[in-house]
Write a structure and sequence with these properties.
The protein is α/β, with parallel strands linked by helices. The protein contains 14 helices and 17 strands. The protein has three domains: 1-63, no CATH class; 84-322, Rossmann fold (3-Layer(aba) Sandwich); 329-382, Arc Repressor Mutant, subunit A (Orthogonal Bundle). A hairpin with a 3-residue loop joins strand 5 and strand 6. Helix 12 (357-364) crosses helix 13. The longest helix is centred in the middle third of the chain and has 17 residues, at 219-235.
């Protein structure tokens, strides 16, 4: 062996029973009692001389990293280390784009919009392990729902549920997955007792006006009342959807959070506010609009979703149409002018069928330049 060697480095050998010895050019390595022995450079000495005189260093086997303990999201004090350890690329949603987890959301609409059927359809999809609703992914943990219905009793609910099941039978385990309360008496305490013994993915309250105690136009009254439920939601790591009404005289307005009946404190505490509206010219068509979303992207906040209502099964499905609200931009450039979204949609349907711009213009009785401009301008909305 030659002299003048650099200090040895750790050798990677399978652990063997003592006393096997290995010579590796510049150093000698041996194992003893399961620990790696690093021996000094040989400097021309024989292996036996090295073993007798060399100072050795024991190197402990590398330990497995300590598993990261999950953070308890039901507590109310966190270290910054716990916060940065949370593994969420984006805020989690129970129903993607519409209902964020761990907070209160509102669903509002006029009396004939079909709000009750909308949330009941969602609840049935959750308890029957469906993967999506209205074209969006459902992400439940328990597959359970707590429904508080002060507007509809057991007979009405029974009829609606059976129609929405559309002849399908609930499995034995699914029959216990949705609890229904039909009275507002001692509501907060009753909900607390249920949550203490049963974890649910979603609490649905229909309707806010029936259970609210105080002046609905006073912000402090509204917030104090909602805080009771917000505390339960956070403590039990669940989600709540509260159904509410549109104020009288505001039914015909374009969907906005100012339409909600009562104080602005309602939408102030809610993390997401949805408005479901009915198309007066098309009875089976609904529009679902996100008018407030603390956790959604700016892009998603500007989109309205078109839904189709099935009057036989009382269910909703996506029409596959998401319309960006560009009316303000159009009006700013052309005062008084509105976008004819149905016409725009038809143009893209014809394009999808393979028609050229010139043919679309002929079929739609439009100028070819207008067709061309629409296809460029609204491409992102209709070709996603």
């Amino acid at each position: 062996m030659r002299q003048g060697f650099t200090p040895p480095v750790k050798m990677q050998y399978p652990i063997k029973a003592y006393p096997p010895i290995y010579s590796n050019n510049d150093k000698v390595v041996m194992w003893k009692s399961g620990f790696l022995k690093m021996v000094a450079p040989t400097n021309g000495q024989s292996v036996n001389q090295i073993i007798k005189t060399a100072r050795v260093k024991e190197v402990e086997p590398e330990k497995e990293p300590t598993p990261i303990q999950p953070v308890d999201l039901t507590k109310d004090i966190f270290t910054v280390g716990e916060l940065v350890s949370l593994d969420y690329a984006s805020y989690p949603y129970l129903l993607e784009k519409f209902i964020p987890k761990g907070c209160i959301s509102f669903l509002a609409g006029s009396s004939d919009a079909g709000k009750s059927l909308f949330y009941l359809n969602l609840a049935i999809n959750i308890i029957t392990d469906q993967k999506e609703y209205i074209g969006q992914e459902i992400n439940p943990t328990y597959g359970k729902v707590l429904l508080i219905s002060t507007e509809d009793g057991p007979i009405a609910l029974s009829n609606r549920i059976k129609k929405q099941l559309n002849g399908n039978k609930l499995l034995t385990k699914q029959k216990e997955r949705m609890l229904v309360i039909t009275s507002s008496d001692g509501l907060v305490e009753r909900v607390k007792k249920i949550l203490d013994h049963c974890s649910v993915d979603l609490i649905i309250l229909d309707a806010f006006g029936d259970v609210f105690e105080g002046d609905i136009n006073t912000s402090n009254h509204v917030r104090l009342f909602l805080k009771k439920f917000d505390k339960l939601v956070k403590k039990h790591n669940t989600t709540m959807l509260i159904v509410h009404h549109i104020a009288k005289g505001k039914e015909n307005q374009a969907a906005n959070k100012g339409q909600l009946l009562g104080s602005a404190g309602i939408e102030g505490l809610a993390r997401e506010v949805l408005i479901l509206s009915k198309d007066p010219s098309k009875p089976m068509k609904r529009t679902l609009k996100v008018v407030k979303a603390n956790y959604a992207s700016e892009e998603d906040k500007r989109i309205s979703y078109e839904l189709l209502f099935d009057s036989k099964t009382l269910t909703y499905k996506s029409m596959g149409t998401a319309l960006k609200e560009l009316d303000n931009e159009v009006e700013r450039k052309n005062p008084g002018r509105k976008v004819d979204w149905e016409k725009v949609e038809k143009v893209f349907e014809l394009k999808k069928e393979g028609h050229s711009g010139a043919k679309i213009a002929e079929l739609m009785d439009m100028h070819p330049a207008t067709v061309s401009r629409w296809l460029r301008k609204y491409k992102d909305q209709f070709e996603t």
